[in-house]
Every structure is written in C-alpha cells, then in structure tokens.
Design a protein that fits this description.
By secondary structure, the protein is an alpha/beta fold. The chain has 2 domains: 201 residues, 2-enoyl-CoA Hydratase, Chain A, domain 1 (Alpha-Beta Complex); 77 residues, Orthogonal Bundle (Lyase 2-enoyl-coa Hydratase, Chain  A, domain 2), CATH 1.10.12.10. The chain has 11 helices and 9 strands. A hairpin with a 2-residue loop joins strand 1 and strand 2. The mean pLDDT is 94.
Length: 286
C-alpha cells in the first residue's frame, strides 16, 4: 500500500509511524485509518521490527477527526441506507483493536495536541510519552457524540473510573502535566527530546530481549485486564512458561547469562508462536 497520510520509517529494530497531515494538524481520516491498519499488519509480519513508535508531523500529534466535511461528519445514515445489511463500525475502534492485538510493543510519542481520536488511539499503546506543552482532551460531549475507539474500556483501566469520568463528562482539554499526574502518560519531556526519549525506550525493549518473550508478555498483560480472577493468569502463565521453558530462546537466555555475553535469540513472533496461542476466544462484532 502506498502511504499518503503517514510515514513508515525503520531504524534498526525500531519502526516510527508518523501521522503526516501537518497542514491539518494530522486530523484523522478514513485514508489514515486504512494506512495505519496496513502499517501495523506490516510491522507484525516483519521480525526485524521489534518496537513501534507513533508520533505526529509538525506541531500536533492528532487534532481528532477531520471535521472539514461539516456538521454531518459523524452522520453515517446515508451509508447505512445504501447497505442496510451492514452494521456501522467505528473506525477508531478498528484501529485500537488492531493495536491491542499487536505482537510488538507500541509507544506513543505525543508531540503536540492530541484530542478526540487523537488521544483515544493511544490508549492501547503500551507507553505514552508527552512533550511539555502538549495538550489532550476527550472532547466527545462537546461535539454531541460519545467516546469511541473502545476508550470506555481502555481509559478507566489506565486512570481509574473517577478521572476517566471527569475528563469524558466535561470534555475539557488538559495539560501534559495533568495527564502525567493521572498516569495517562509515563513521562513529560522537553519537545526537542521527545523522539530521542521514545527511541531510547524502544531500544531498551528491543536490545537483549527475546522477541517471542515480549510478544507473549504483551498479550498476557493486556488480556488479563479483563480477567475476573488471578487463576486465569495462572492458567496462561503456566502454559507460557512451560512452552518457553523448553524453547531455544530460554536455553539461549540462560547460556548467555552464564557465559557473560549478549544473547542471540532466534524465535520469530511471525512464525513461531507456541501451539496454545491465541488462548482467548474469538471476539466477533454482532
């Protein structure tokens, strides 16, 4: 797929996806959605890519949905009338569900304003780092709509129900420092240091770690957010540690430690996932 609204740049084990409509503050479009979905699938299939960074071009991360279509921007009734058998699916949700399923860690480098889908798209990303001066907002009630992109599931799990309710009900825009205090972002850094900080963290995740261990760990952490008892984690832990314990990567991890050298892991998330993966039931949109 040719990319028109994002940039896809690989540097060693790190892929940087840049939302690239700077003249529109990287406002979200159907084209951008399709390109992001393609880029994430491409990254998962490429074992050379170990970590993904998502950032924005210019002075914004993403100003939310492109509203240039006017007051009917969110009105999809015409499409439903043309295809009554089709149930409308929220585009932001398609994106966040795809990020949720990713085998690679995803870091958001929030370089500027991130509102609406511009902030909800970051919620299933594993770490959010913000530039000083960046502002964020879940502005849906101020646009006469409701939270999207599965944010009613993700946001309370990240910051708690009370803070999520405050931000959603008021629809106000808040600072990076408020986001840091609530745990929405893990750190706030000077704007000029943002991409370096994100890249350093990405390399720390990629260097000296097993790609398979990271892929399984990512899914274990996210999937257990919905478990109703620690026994569910124990079941998955037991299967995963049994499978990985007999793997080439586990043998190499111990041998490299004993021999005081860097490990040379060989398992590939694109092809070598253990037989029990995925362990969760398929979820369908019905």
């Amino acid at each position: 797929m040719d990319y028109e609204q994002i940039r896809y740049q690989v540097d060693g084990p790190v892929l940087t996806i840049t939302l690239s409509r700077p003249e529109k503050l990287n406002a979200f479009t159907h084209r951008m959605l399709d390109e992001l979905l393609d880029a994430l699938a491409r990254a998962d299939a490429d074992d050379a890519v170990r970590v993904v960074i998502v950032t924005g071009a210019g002075r914004a991360f993403c100003a939310g949905a492109d509203l240039s279509g006017g007051s009917g921007t969110f009105d999809h009734s015409d499409a439903a009338a043309r295809s009554p058998a089709d149930t409308h699916r929220d585009g932001g949700g398609l994106l966040t569900l795809r990020i949720f399923e990713s085998k690679k860690p995803v870091i958001a480098a929030i370089n500027g304003p991130a509102v609406g889908v511009g902030i909800t798209m970051t919620l299933p990303m594993d770490v959010r780092i913000a530039a000083a001066g960046a502002r964020m907002g879940f502005v849906f009630t101020r646009r006469g709509i409701v939270p999207e992109a599965c944010s009613s599931w993700f946001l309370p799990r990240l910051v708690g129900i009370s803070r999520a309710a405050e931000w959603i009900y008021t629809g106000r825009v808040f600072t990076a420092e408020e986001a840091l205090a609530a745990g929405l972002v893990s750190r706030v850094v000077p704007a000029e240091a943002l991409l370096e900080a994100a890249h350093d963290l990405a390399r720390e995740m990629a260097d000296g770690t097993s790609a398979m261990s990271v892929a399984l760990s990512r899914q274990m952490l996210w999937r257990m957010l919905g478990a109703d008892h620690p026994m569910e984690a124990h079941k998955v832990d037991s299967r995963a540690i049994f499978a990985m314990g007999q793997s080439a990567d586990a043998h190499e991890g111990v041998a490299s430690f004993l021999e005081k050298r860097e490990p040379r892991f060989t398992l590939r998330p694109s092809a070598d996932m253990p037989p029990f993966y995925p362990w969760w039931p398929e979820r369908k949109f019905e």
